[in-house]
Amino acid sequence: MNILYPRDISCSNFKAKNRLYWRILTDRIWKVLFLFALAFGMNCWIQLRWKGWYGTQLEPRCQVPDEELEDMRIIGRQTQDILDKHNMTYALGFGSLWGALRIGDILPWDIDIDLLVVVDRNSDIYGTIDMLIEDMRAQGMDVYYRDWVGIIQGYSPIYKSQLDLSFWCDYYGTGTMHRCSGWESWFFFVHHRFKFAFPARLVQPPLPELNFINRSWTVPREGIELQKIHYPNDWWKVAKPRGC
Fold first, then answer.
1. Beta-bridge partner residues of 151
2. I need a surface site. Which of 3, 19, 98, 212 has the fewest CB within 10 A?
3. Residues 205-238, buried b or exposed e (16+ Cβ, 10 A)?
């Protein structure tokens, strides 16, 4: 008995330490899950309340100077020629689509031209991006690929007027178009799902055309249906920058 007694004490201590270890581990797991759920909930809340650049500009302009608008038109036409040269499917989007629908030109307060480029999900998307960047630079534009948002941004050499190319594909083969480059659409997936993703039928060729910056441009099908998705809170009214 005297020989076995220390062994019994050692076994009891091991069991007690084991129970304590699992209690601490379980407690930490629940805390991590709680923090994750809290962060996920806040992320979703922020995404669903995002109102776009009109509500976030530090110094919004009600009227972009004429020389900047003309610069924007020039790089817009140059980019259209490049896309047509490569037989790519594209359409005006966001503020530029509003401009085409309402006045046939860039909205006075708009800061860029927005083009939605349709690509095949099985194609070499980044090869296409590199090709477009090379062609745009050959036209004298300052061009950058923004890895986070997955868009090409082109700037005019004088006034730095801006043009954005975003890339869309039916990524899952379900008839819904998603942004298929960049990390933002994956990280902010709730925001992307409810305010960016749209039915593939809206960009199914052949696309209708509207006049924009004194040229005929392809636009999404069904009139303003795409705008109802991209501007769910105010598609029925003219949304201007603060103070305009």
1. 146, 166
2. 3
3. eebeebebbeeebbbbbeeeebbebbbeeeeeee
pTM metric for this prediction: 0.79
DSSP state, 148?
T
Q: What is the pLDDT of residue 85?
A: 97
For the chain, counts of helices (H) and of strands (E): 7, 9
Structure tokens at 106: 């860039």
The Cα–Cα gap between 112 and 72 comes to 7
pLDDT tens digits along 34-63: 776 666 665 555 555 555 444 445 567 889
C-alpha angle with apex 217: 71 to 50, nearest 5 degrees?
A: 75
Q: CA 76 from chain center: how many Å?
A: 20
Q: Residue 32: is it exposed, middle or buried by C-beta count within 10 angstroms (0-12/13-18/19+)?
A: exposed
